[in-house]
Known about the structure:
By secondary structure, the protein is of the alpha/beta class. Helices cover 53% and strands 11% of the residues. Helix 3 packs parallel to helix 8 (169-186). The protein is globular.
Amino acid sequence: MTISAYTAMYMEEVCRVAQGIDQGQVDKIVRILAKTRADGGRLFFLGVGGGAGNASHAVNDFRKIAAIESYAPTDNVSELTARVNDDGWETVFARWLEVSKVGSRDVVFVFSVGGGNAEKNISANIVQGLKVAKAAGAKVVGVVGRDGGYTAQVADACVIVPTVNPETVTPHAEAFQAVVWHLIVSHPDLKQNEMKWEAVR
Length: 201
């Protein structure tokens, strides 16, 4: 079978991205989350678009496998759209975190391609949400692309998915969000419960 040039290129990029991940930042996130669980804190995932889908999946994994109380505001479409309709898109995460009484024992975990940019009004809801989180003393972590944007600027630990091709920034950033969170949730310092297929002998 003939392999297309694009497929070969893309898979070669995947290898380069994986090799370029800052593993020290990954382990720093693991340590932060281990302390959060020990302290009885909660984990809030923020993401839009593909990041919202990843956030929903990650909530499941961190609750079920790592036994950390976890939530994503985008999982409740009624509240999300009511807040967007009544208050505006920019403040939807900030207001949600305020009602959740985000505090110093909690962590806000961002999945975003750009990480938010206040000056360019990109992912302003993530920027506003992080401002509320930091003001409350919560820790901020993230897996983001490009230069990490606002998330990388304020995060306590942040994995920036390396840009290996400016034409494939988004697919690699969103794909590696899943790679990194699955690494984190299966890390022996966090994993509390066996995963189904690993338990089948």
